[in-house]
Amino acid sequence: MISRIWHGWTTLGNADAYDAIVRGEVIPGIEAMKIAGFRHTDLLRRELDEKVEFLTIMWFDDLDAVRAFKGENYIVAHVLARARAVPSRFDSHSAHYEVIDRRKQVET
Length: 108
Known about the structure:
Layout: E1 2-11, H1 15-32, E2 38-47, E3 51-60, H2 63-70, H3 81-84, E4 89-90, E5 95-98
Antiparallel strand pairs: 1-3, 1-4, 1-5, 2-3
């Protein structure tokens, strides 16, 4: 499994607008692509002093699935033009990690 990780930061005033774009357009657009080997997206939000950090974690079966999403230059971040205007800064590239151990907790 591959975890694709990306960060973006907004001002406090733009955080809700960015959140709405990502959850209303970006993630549904990716899901609509029906990429074989794409599992799901986690969107995390953290308020800091004067900004808000967003962390996106996308889960893929393997790098071939990531390439099906972004092509051979798959490290380039996936940021829609409309979404680029809202963050104060964002990663231009995504990081990819091989998931080497993922454990489910046993329910008692």
